[in-house]
Amino acid sequence: MNLLENIRESLRAIQSNLLRTVLTGLIISIGIMSLVGILTAVDSMKSSLTETFSSLGANGFDIRQKGGNNRGSRQGRIEKVYPAITYEQATRYKDLMADKARVSLSAYISGATVVKSITEKSNPNINVVGGDENYLQNQNLELAKGRGFSNYEHELGTNVAIVGDEVASALFKNKEEVIGNYVTFLGRRFKVVGQLAKEGSSMGGSGDRRIIIPLETGRQIPRPGGVMLTYDIKTVIARPEELNYVMGEATGVMRSVRQDPLGQEESFEIRRSDSALETLNEISGYLKAGGFIIGFITLLGASVGLMNIMMVSVNERTREIGVRKALGATAQQIRRQFLIEAIVICILGGLVGILLGILMGNGIAALIGEGSFIVPWIWVIVGLTICVVVGVISGYYPAFRASRLDPIESLRYE
C-alpha cells in the first residue's frame, strides 16, 4: 500500500465516521481559531496604529528643553532643569538645518485659556500654541475649512488664529460663521482664518481644543510674571531611512548653538517622533506572546482529545487491522495509515480554524478601533504547521499501537 493509497484509505475512514470527524476537527478548529484570532487582532490593530503614528511624522524628531517638564524630585534627588531654548537659538538651528530638513518652530503660549466669541464663552480648557510657516505641515494638521497663515501674517505677527473643531463648535452655533469671525483670548481680539479637521478620541480630544496663532504673534503676548517662552523644534526629513544620521548631525548642530561644553550631556532633549511606535511594537510583542500561549494551551487540550478519538478508532477497527495484516499489510503501512488519518483531520480542522480566526481577529480589531482588514499569511502558515505537528504527535501512539496488534488476535476481536 503506497502513500497515495494510504491517503485515500484515510479519507474513506473519515467519511465513514463523518460525525466523529467533524467533532474532532471542531476541537482543532477552536484551538487554531483562538491562536490565529488573537494574533490577527493584534496585527490588525498594530497596522492601524502604525499608520496613525506614521501620519504624525515618523520621519522626524523633536528637540525640547531638557528637564522642562520635571516637577519636584525623583528618588530624593532634585532633577536639574536646563535653560530654556531661546528664540535666537531655535532660529539659528533652523537656518543651519534648512538645506537638510524641514524645520518648524513652536511655543506653548497658554493653557487652560478662556476663549470668547461675540455671544459665547468656552470652558477654561483651551491650549494656545504659536507656530511658524512649517508648523501645520510638520505636525500633519489638516484644515477642514479656511486657510493657513500668510507670510505677511507670520512676519508681522498679525492677530489671526486657526481654531480646533471643539473650539469652533463651542463658540459658533452656526458652523458656517466660523471663518472670518472674531474670538477674544489673552487680552487680544483674533480673526479666525482657519478651522482644523476633527481629530477625535485618537488624540485624547486635546487637539480639538487647540488654537494656533502665528509664532511672532505669540512672542508679542506678555507672559505672566515675565516668564520667557521656551521653543520646541520639530525636524522632518524626506527619507526616513536617514533619520538616525540626521539626528546625529542635528545633535551636533544644537550642541553648538547651545554652546554645550565637550564631555558634558546635552542641555536639550531630542526624541524621535516614532518613539511611541517603538513602544507600541514592544507592547504588541507581549500581546502576541500571550496570545500564542493561550492558543498553545487550547491546542494542547485539542491534541489530547484527538489522541483519545484515535485510540477509540483503533479499538473499533481492530478486526479491519487484522484483515489488512492477514492480506500482507506491514506494520509500517498500518502505522502510516492511522498517522495520515490524524494529520488529515488536523489539517481540515485547521483550515476551518484559520478562516474563523481571521474573521474573529479582524472583527475584534474593528470593534475596538479602526483596524484594517488583514490576512496574516505568516500565522496561516504557522497554524497549518502546528496542525501537522499536532496530528503527528496525537496520532503517533494510536498508530504505533495499531501496528503492533497481532493479526490472529485482531481477527478474533469482537
Describe this structure as you would to a colleague.
By secondary structure, the chain is of the alpha+beta class. Helices cover 54% and strands 16% of the residues. Strands 1, 4, 5, 6, 7, 8, 9, 10, 11 and 12 form a ten-stranded mixed β-sheet that branches. β8 and β9 (188-196) form a beta hairpin. α1 (3-16) crosses α11 (331-368). It is elongated, with a radius of gyration of 34 Å. The protein starts with a helix and ends with a helix.
Descriptive keywords:
single chain; 414 residues; ten-stranded mixed sheet; two-stranded antiparallel sheet
Set out the fold topology:
Blueprint: H1 3-16, H2 18-55, E1 60-65, E2 73-74, E3 77-78, H3 87-96, E4 102-113, E5 126-131, H4 135-138, E6 143-146, H5 151-156, E7 160-163, H6 165-171, E8 182-185, E9 188-196, E10 210-214, H7 215-220, E11 231-236, H8 243-258, E12 268-272, H9 275-316, H10 318-326, H11 331-368, H12 377-403, H13 407-412
Parallel strand pairs: 5-10, 7-9
Antiparallel strand pairs: 1-11, 1-12, 2-3, 4-5, 4-11, 6-9, 7-10, 8-9
TL;DR of this structure?
By secondary structure, the chain is of the alpha+beta class. It contains 13 helices and 12 strands.
